[in-house]
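Quick start: read one record
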Amino acid sequence: MGNVIIITGSGSGIGRTIALRFAKAGYRVVINDIVKENGEKILAEIISQGGQGIFVPADVSNIEQVRNLFQTTLAEYGQVDVLVNNAGVPGGFSFITDMPDETWLKTISVHLTGTFFCIREALKTMIKMETGRIINIASIAGLMGTVGSGEYGAAKAGIINLTKTCAKESGPFNITVNAIAPGMVGTPTNLKLQKKRSQFIETAIEGTPTGCMTTPAQISETCFFLASKSASNITGQVVTIDGGAEMSTNMDSFMAQHLIRRNKSASNNNHGK
């Protein structure tokens, strides 16, 4: 029987690509998503290709649902060998001064608190097994901050710090904990924007030394390596996959000017009423 991997937020996007990569390698894949249709669709795709897996819906910011995710996995497979914390939510763009409380709370609860809940549950099993791999999907925003998405950058920075602390605590049990920090990712949405010559995407690419967005496949391959025996002595690390974008400030300059123009426009419209 193959190893067991739980991938949160794997009904679409990056998580879906990771799920397909591990299923192809013989892992028994636990798909998690809050959208039932997405989770069932990717599970059907895995099974049609000869893979094995189950779908467990759960909101990772809800501890009871997270516990059910792990209890269901253990009841079905009896083990958890790899956990990939990928679940996230999109946020609106705003300066910190304009950010609604709900945006901050929702982003932190899903990205950071959700990652914490899942790590804690995974460790209960991995420590007993005295082996395991935990991979957290962070972002270069967590390393350098990001204009217009302060809540997202803060959540990802928290994930990076949690990764390092967890690596220190779980190392003696043969458990490695690492993070992947992508730059702009070529998701279906971003690729569509690129075709439409979106200034947002063009600015990001112009500020990337390689001139390319990161692909979901590059992230999934990095995940696969970090879960492998070859990476058994790599822990507490943040693997940046961004084409060198972390070295650029193009996006911050673009977002700052965009938000200033938007705020001025909103202010002028209000005065005109």
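The two ends are 68 Å apart (CA to CA).
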